[in-house]
Amino acid sequence: MKATVYHGARDVRLETVADPIVKEPTDAIVRVVRAAICGSDLWFYRGVTQWEPGDRTGHEFVGVVDAVGSDVRTVKPGDYVIAPFVSSDGTCEYCHAGLQTSCTHMSNWGDDANGGQAEAVRVPFADGTLVKMAPGMESDPAKLASALTLCDVMGTGHHGVVTADARRGGTVVVIGDGAVGLCGVLSASRVVGAERVIAVGHNAKRLELARAFGATHTFNSHDDGVAGEILELTQGGAHSVVEAVGNQESMELGLELARPGGTMSFVGVPHNVQNLPLRPLFVKNVSLHGALAPTRAYVETLMDYVMRDAIDPSRVFDLTLPLDRVAEGYQAMDERRAIKVVLENGL
Amino acid sequence: MKATVYHGARDVRLETVADPIVKEPTDAIVRVVRAAICGSDLWFYRGVTQWEPGDRTGHEFVGVVDAVGSDVRTVKPGDYVIAPFVSSDGTCEYCHAGLQTSCTHMSNWGDDANGGQAEAVRVPFADGTLVKMAPGMESDPAKLASALTLCDVMGTGHHGVVTADARRGGTVVVIGDGAVGLCGVLSASRVVGAERVIAVGHNAKRLELARAFGATHTFNSHDDGVAGEILELTQGGAHSVVEAVGNQESMELGLELARPGGTMSFVGVPHNVQNLPLRPLFVKNVSLHGALAPTRAYVETLMDYVMRDAIDPSRVFDLTLPLDRVAEGYQAMDERRAIKVVLENGL
Q1: Based on the domain organization, do B135 and B162 belong to the same domain?
Q2: Is the pLDDT of residue B114 over 90?
Q3: Do B197 and B230 share a domain, yes or no?
Q4: How much is the pTM?
C-alpha cells in the first residue's frame, strides 16, 4: 500500500510500504478514506521536534474496516469508523474515567510504522479505540469530513472548553484561530451554550469563520490593547479561557484574561513556553488545566451534534487534496495558505 | 500602643506607634490577644522580598473588639473575633463566591501601618472580615491558639486540600512539613476524610506531628527514590497533591506524583520557581490550582471542627512568647528552631 513517510525537515513522501496485517486478536485493519494534516504535524515537519527518517505520519483518519482479529466484537468488515488520535483498550481505569489518552495500553499513530496519512492502518484494541459512524455519515461529504475532525481537532477544542469549566450562559475566551481554536469556539457556542464567546486570533479569514462558529466577539491579537479591551468587556476577565496556541505569549495572555476563580485550559501543544507566570494563578486562584484531549470520550456526543446539524466542524478544512498530493498539503499548511487539509482516498 | 516594625533584613522591633482609630464607619478596632509569625513572613525578614523600613508586620491575629464604626452590625465591643489574613467587604461577587482574597475591597495587613503583630489593629470592613469566636473559645488556651490558625495556616492548608479536589476515601499527597503542610494533612485526614494521606517533608519532628495529624505515610524528601516509592505506593500517583513549599523542586515533585486526571494545588507562595514543567500537566491532564487562600470562607466550618475537638491545629505552634519578644520569635523561625510562633498579649 501507499503511506506517507517522513524523510527530514519539510520532506514527506507518499511511498509504497508493506500492507498492514492483523497481528493481535484485538487488532483491526482500517482502509483509510479520509485523513487530515494536523497543526501539530508542523512541529516535526519544521524540524522543531526530532523525528527519525522512515517514521510514518498522520494521526487523524476515518475509514472502513477491512479485517478484524478474532477478539474484536464491536466492529466488523465493512463498517465505517472513526479513529481517535490514540488507541485505547476501553477497559482500564483511565478509559473508564474518560481519560483514554492515559490508557495503560495507549499508543500513538504517526510515530512508528502505522501512520494515518496512508491507504490503511493497523488499529490496536479496535473495540476500545474505534467508533462506528452513524448510519449514512460516510455518504454525506460534509459529515464525513466532520467525522474526521472528531479524531482530534473538534474533540480537542471541545476538551479545552469542557476542562476550562465553560458553562451554559457563561463567558469563554478562546485564544488561537487554528483548527483547534475554531473548534473550541464551536463547542463553547453550540455544544456548551456559552453566551459570550470571545475569539482571539490574527487571521481575518479565520476570525470570520470563528464568527460563523458562534463567536460573539473577535479580536486580532496583533492589535494594541487587546487584553485591556477584553478585560473591560468582561469586567475583569472570563471564567473560562481556552488557550489553543501553545507559546509563551498566548499562555501569558490567557492567564491575564482569566477571571479570579476561573480556569484556563491549554490544548495547544506547549512549545517554547520558557516560564509560565505563576503569580496570576496564585493571586487570582485560577486553575490551569491540561490538556492532551481524550477525544475518544467525546466521539459519540459530538457525532450526534454533527448528525443533527447542530455543528459543522468540517468547515475548518479549507483545502482538499488526493492522498498522493500529501506533500503539497504540508506545504500549504506550513505556509499558512490553509487552516487544515483533508486528504481523500476513495469514497 | 506597641507594634512590630520592619527595619531591614533580620531586623524587626516592637515600637511605640500611634493608636489605631476608627476612620471609616465600617471599621472596627481589635485589641490583639494572640498573633502569629507566618512562614511567609520569613520572605521579607530574610530580604528575599523587598519591604520598606517602617512597614508594620503580621497578618495573623485574634482579639477582642474595642470599638466599631457606626455601620458595623455583626460585631460589638467585647466580642472575641478571628481576623482572616486579608480584609474583605463580604458583599461583592467574589465574597459571595467564597473568594474573599479577590474581594474588590480586599486589603492586606502587614504591608502598611496596620500590622497584626501589635497590640491593636484597625480592621476595615469589619462585618465582612471578622468572625466572632464560638462561645468559650477565648477561655481555652488550646482552642484560642487554634482560632489563630484559622486566620491563615489552617485555612490555607484546607484550601490546598479542597482545591486539590481531595475526596473522602481518596489519596492525598502533601508536600511540605511547615505549618501549612501540616494543616493540609489535618484537613485531608480529619475534615475531608481521605483514606491515604502521604506527607513529604524533611524534618523528623514535623513528620511525627504529621502522623499525629493523620498522615498514614511519611517520607523524607532528602532520601533517594522518594518519588518512585510514592508512585509505587499509589500505583501511579495521587489524585490530589497539595504543594505547600513553593520552590522549583517541590513543584516538580508534586507534578510527578499527580495521577493522570488528578489535581495539584500549590499553596506555598511561589519563590524561585524558574520553569514549571508543562509537559506532565499536558500529557497527564493534571490540573494546577492556585492558591491564595480565602481563609474567611472556611472560618466557621473549621471553627466548628475545633470546638468539637475533631481537629487541634494549635499543635503547629511550638514556641510561645510574649509580644515584646517578637524579634526572638522571628529568629527562632528563621533558624528553623520553631515551626511556628505564637505571640501573647493578654488573656
Answers
A1: no
A2: no
A3: yes
A4: 0.94
